[in-house]
């Protein structure tokens, strides 16, 4: 296909306040993003509560890493299948069912903690159940976005989705710290249960076209369609390299944010209040950076942002673990959150822009696999190494490896940019 001149390429406003305002002016978008903000706030409260509970029960960075791993790792097995399921069944119903399972899991955790019947093994099993449900929820929810807003507002909706997540990452810890300090883990986990019940109740209110509720009629087995999703992404000259880059970077860098309690207590001698403050700073940085990405108002340059943000995050993480000064650590945490937000919003927007609509659920399930399974693997590795070598050295070595990955991404930048930033039909061989 001939390359169109610069002036003829479509212009996507991915984030002036006008574009965000237009995206949020639609009734269904208001319901969808309002429910997202509520559920993700509950999720962050729950994550902090479970992380702190695992630390209190074991005093082991390894077990805290295992708690994060149990929640996030099911994506390795289930995300590809979930993407195929999301492309062939009613996405609204699939989202409702998965959210209901998450609410039930939170109720079970709270009940067992309150009754004194919780153990670290049972906690890990329950978190794995919640992680499995979340693996199905993610591609189903995100595949609904083109049915909530007009095509011209889709990039702004993608940015808004990420902004909701990062607003929740600020609000959740701000609630979790005082709540855990005053009432313990149980009220915090019950809050997550309530949040997901509310989110589940809003889904039937959405008025989504039938064509957007379901990707396509069944064409074969779920396994065959899941494999087709892998094949499509792997052969795509932009999506494949970008997702591979994001996956390796997530394994190396995101583990730090998944096991913060050992860092808080061992490096900075702080308790739940310090954990909440640190996590809130990550959220503030993510929110500010997310608004900046949204306000750029163009797709051009998004690939460079997705790649370059990894370098910023690696340097900030080295600063975070190298210092014993908590105020400086808070500043580094804000930069970590900001760089992660730039990388995540840019990557997801590029993938949404470049993916074939019939493959959207499966491609987004791979992004979900990266955002859930790769941090879990990183958390498990970092927690294990932290028990032997301390937390600083393994983290610094991981950030050095991340900078090597950055160099690889920069070499591929030009080739990825050409196919990701312009809407193009996928090659026939990739379908």
UniProtKB/TrEMBL annotation:
One Pfam family here: MFS_3
Compartments it resides in: Cell membrane
Keywords: Cell membrane, Membrane, Transmembrane, Transmembrane helix, Transport
Membrane topology: Multi-pass membrane protein
Source organism superkingdom: Bacteria
Parts of the chain that traverse the membrane: 31-55, 61-85, 106-126, 179-206, 239-256, 276-294, 391-410
Alphabetical list of InterPro entries matching this protein: MFS_trans_sf, TM_effector
This protein's name: MFS transporter
């Amino acid at each position: 296909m001939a390359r169109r001149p610069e002036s003829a390429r479509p212009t996507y406003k991915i984030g002036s306040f006008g574009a965000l305002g237009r995206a949020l002016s639609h009734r269904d978008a208001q319901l969808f993003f309002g429910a997202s903000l509520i559920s993700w706030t509950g999720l962050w409260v729950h994550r902090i509560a479970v992380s702190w509970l695992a630390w209190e029960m074991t005093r082991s960075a390894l077990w805290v890493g295992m708690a994060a791993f149990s929640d996030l790792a099911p994506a390795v097995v289930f995300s590809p299948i979930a993407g195929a399921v999301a492309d062939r069944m009613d996405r609204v119903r699939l989202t409702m069912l998965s959210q209901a399972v998450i609410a039930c899991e939170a109720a079970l955790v709270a009940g067992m903690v309150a009754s004194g019947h919780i153990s670290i093994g049972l906690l890990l099993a329950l978190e794995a159940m919640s992680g499995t449900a979340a693996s199905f929820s993610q591609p189903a929810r995100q595949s609904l976005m083109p049915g909530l807003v007009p095509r011209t507002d889709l990039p702004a909706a993608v940015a808004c989705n990420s902004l909701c997540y990062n607003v929740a990452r600020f609000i959740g810890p701000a609630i979790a710290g005082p709540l855990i300090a005053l009432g313990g883990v149980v009220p915090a986990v019950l809050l997550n249960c309530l949040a997901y019940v509310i989110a589940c109740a809003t889904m039937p209110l959405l008025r989504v076209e039938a064509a957007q509720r379901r990707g396509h009629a069944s064409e074969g087995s779920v396994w065959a369609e899941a494999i087709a999703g892998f094949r499509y992404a792997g052969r795509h000259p932009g999506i494949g390299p970008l997702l591979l880059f994001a996956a390796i970077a997530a394994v190396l860098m995101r583990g730090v944010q998944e096991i913060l309690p050992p860092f808080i207590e061992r490096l900075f001698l702080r308790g739940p209040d310090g954990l909440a403050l640190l996590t809130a700073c990550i959220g503030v940085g993510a929110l500010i950076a997310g608004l900046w990405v949204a306000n750029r108002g163009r797709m051009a340059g998004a690939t460079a942002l997705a790649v370059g943000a990894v370098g910023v995050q690696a340097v900030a993480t080295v600063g975070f673990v190298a210092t014993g000064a908590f105020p400086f650590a808070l500043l580094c945490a804000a930069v970590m959150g900001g760089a992660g937000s730039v990388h995540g919003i840019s990557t997801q927007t590029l993938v949404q822009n470049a993916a074939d609509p019939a493959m959207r659920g499966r491609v987004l399930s791979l992004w979900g696999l990266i955002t859930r399974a790769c941090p879990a693997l990183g958390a498990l590795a970092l927690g294990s190494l932290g028990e032997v070598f301390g937390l600083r050295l393994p983290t610094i070595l991981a950030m050095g490896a991340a900078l090597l990955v950055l160099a690889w991404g920069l070499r591929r930048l030009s080739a990825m940019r050409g196919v990701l930033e312009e809407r193009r039909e996928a090659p026939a061989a990739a379908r």
